[in-house]
Amino acid sequence: MESLDRFDVTHLALSVDEDDIVTVTLNRADKRNALNAATIEELIDVFSNLPRMGARAVILRGEGTHFCAGLDLVEHHREDRRPDEFMHLCLRWHEAFNKMEYGGVPIIAALKGAVVGGGLELASSAHIRVADQTTYFALPEGQRGLFTGGGATIRVADLVGKARMIDMMLTGRVYKGEEAVNVGLAQYLVENSEAKALELAREAAKHPPLTNFAICSAISHMQNMSALDAAYAEAVVAGVVNTQPAARGRLEAFANKTAARVRPE
Ligand code: 1HE
Questions:
Q1: Is the pLDDT of residue 265 over 90?
Q2: pLDDT (tens digit, 9 = 90+) per residue, 99-128?
């Protein structure tokens, strides 16, 4: 893939491995990776460009012991923003997170420690969430006198349902461990979330990019449509993806009985 040198980042750290799997690290450990306005701009830049630069999958992680403490509350306090200023800031958050969710490249969030407030909004924009035993999820906006502004009303409500989200916001309820998996906040609970995220990324990266593009954009788009339009859009996407040259060899292998069969472990 293209070199990552083109990115001018200070709050994020970027690296790529030999399989074109990119690791995006939230790099403000001393601030528990709180999301200031500058970090959001870096996320927009990175996730607007990574898909067309040839990234096959992305691991999203945090430096230090916490994934992300959400909105930079100190910056927000210092800036003393007007309503219109904060609204515009939220639109930048949405820009970043929409680039992630709809960008067409699998993003796997390797979680640990706090995944709270805007940190949960960020994590819920990834396609897969992997938690470890230290990971906990919360929406502490209520206790800060705030409201979610980075898409939680859409994505967190999608993951856990409206009633649980309202409970999290009204009562400060914290989810962790198996319970977090059971309510849909994470898909995996493991000893080492970063190792597992990399394993999952390698698995996903074996697919043709066009197939992953469909999985990591079309499903989200279709959820925004009526069932009738979604069915039509699905047929169009499948028309393109399911006839791609990259699928032919795989179909031939199945027909020749050389391809792996689908079996439980
Ligand atoms: C921060 C932030 C932050 C830490 N903004 N600076 N999110 C929250 O309500 C969560 C707020 N944070 C915490 O509850 C705790 O910091 C943690 C549980 C995440 C970590 O605790 P701990 O004991 O490891 O760290 P700490 O001592 O609290 O903080 C260490 C430093 O990180 C300290 O800075 P320092 O300069 O005094 O060393 C903290 O100020 C800084 N820090 N979290 C700014 N969030 C689009 S709307 C979204 C709305 C929301 O996200 S609201 C939820 C906000």
A1: no
A2: 999 999 999 999 999 999 999 999 999 999
Q: What are the structural domains, with CATH classification, of the chain?
A: 4-205 (3.90.226.10), 209-255 (1.10.12.10)
Residue 130 CB less than 6 A away from ligand 1: no
Kind and range of the H or E run holding 39: helix 37-53
Catalytic residue list contains 2:
no
Is the pTM higher than 0.90?
yes
Verify whether ligand 1 is closer than 6 Å to residue 149 (CB atom): yes
The whole-angstrom separation of Cα 110 and Cα 73 is 23
Average pLDDT over residues 49-55: 97
Non-local (6+) Cβ contacts of 184 within 8 A are 159, 160, 161
Active site residue 141: yes
Measured at the CA of 21, the angle between CA 55 and CA 53, to 5 degrees, comes to: 15
